[in-house]
Write a structure and sequence with these properties.
The protein has about 350 residues and is of the alpha/beta class. About 25% of the residues lie in helices and about 25% in strands. Strand 17 and strand 18 (about 270-275) form a beta hairpin.
Length: about 350
């Protein structure tokens, strides 16, 4: 049994950012992460992934990302950067130690880990990241075992895909990037839903994220008029990802996938086609099976929180998409969100300590 002020679950960019602030506040805490190395959540994504934010907007506070500030880093570069950040800041991180359960207990929470360790903490900060459990529709189970099925966590490169016809379901940034990559060597279909706004990667020679910064689109509060407008359209940077550009690259655009049978997928417009492989790039669910705290998750298993604050006292979240603004989903926004969540964690720890003394 170990007693700490704060347990941070996850040592990705959000967890590291909040951990650095907790260290400066001189409270007892640890970061728990089930991966073997810092940055593995980035290393495990598809090989060709390049960030749409330049290096100057892809770093945590106090440690710039090496290289051309106007250039765009790949996912392995970010993984190495996060590992270096953890080393430079010398945070108390436990790797290969996955949290298997968190329950409420007297004075706070009890966390159980995969190593058998029990940790009692006044406060828990969930920094599990946005890419937890891929969304796979129920009808995927109706596809033949001969149809290869991958998702955003299991697709890595074209070498995994058999020759033939490939369907990518989900036309967000990931689905469009993977479609472009596979269209060079495969017959590729992309199934999408609602309209997606695509903007240029650079505008008048400037990184589009720098333009967002100047106009307020990056950091304006999500509940402001401007913030709600940006959230509604949530633009994808990169004109090479426009539907017209995808079609020129050979990608066939089809309607939303709604059903399947054997090797055939049915689309919302009544059309159906056969495929040799399907890649699900619809998005992600929260993986909250370990969080056994009443009132912490909804009926679908998603975390209940507002701006990172759970209705359960002492339970906080960091690294949520649109937690406060558009920057919340990016490395450049981790620092601001971390300051807010660290302050709330410290306030709760101190008030909890005061209650125990009185």
């Amino acid at each position: 049994m170990e007693q700490l002020d704060v347990v941070v679950i996850g040592a990705g960019q959000a967890g590291l950012a909040v951990g650095q602030l907790l260290k400066q506040a001189h409270v007892s805490f640890t970061l728990l992460d089930g991966n073997r190395r810092i940055g593995d959540s980035w290393r495990q994504r598809y090989d060709s992934l390049v960030l749409f934010s330049s290096r100057q907007y892809s770093a945590l506070p106090d440690l710039p990302l090496a290289g051309d500030p106007a250039g765009y880093p790949g996912k392995d570069e970010i993984a190495e950067y996060l590992e270096r950040y953890a080393r430079v800041t010398d945070l108390p991180i436990r790797l290969n130690e996955r949290v298997t359960s968190v329950e409420q207990s007297e004075g706070g929470f009890m966390a159980q880990t995969s190593t058998g360790m029990q940790i009692r903490a006044r406060c828990v900060v969930v920094a599990a990241g946005p890419f937890q459990r891929p969304i796979i529709p129920r009808f995927a189970g109706k596809l033949s075992p001969e149809v290869l099925q991958l998702d955003g966590t299991t697709y890595h490169n074209p070498g995994q895909i058999p020759s033939g016809r490939v369907l990518i379901v989900g036309d967000g940034a990931t689905g469009r990037q993977v479609s472009t990559e596979l269209a060079r060597t495969r017959v590729v279909w992309l199934s999408g839903g609602s309209f997606r706004l695509v903007v240029p990667q650079r505008l008048f020679g400037r990184d589009i994220i720098a333009v967002f910064e100047t106009t307020g689109a990056l950091r304006d509060d999500k509940e402001s008029l401007h913030g709600r407008f940006v959230q509604l359209f949530d633009p994808i940077p990169g004109w090479h990802l426009r539907r017209s550009a995808l079609r020129r690259a050979g990608v066939k655009i089809v309607a939303r996938a709604i059903d399947a049978e054997d090797d055939r997928v049915v689309f919302a417009d009544g059309r159906s086609e056969t495929f040799d492989a399907v890649i699900w790039a619809i998005g992600y669910h929260d993986d909250s099976s370990w969080l056994r705290v009443p009132g912490a998750v909804d009926a679908k298993g998603n975390y209940i929180e507002h701006r990172g604050v759970s209705p359960v006292p002492g339970l906080l979240h960091i690294g949520r998409n649109w937690q406060n603004n558009r920057a919340s989903a990016l490395l450049t926004g981790a620092g601001n969100d971390a300051r807010d969540i660290a302050a709330k964690a410290l306030q709760f720890v101190r008030s909890s300590a005061t209650r125990e003394r009185t």
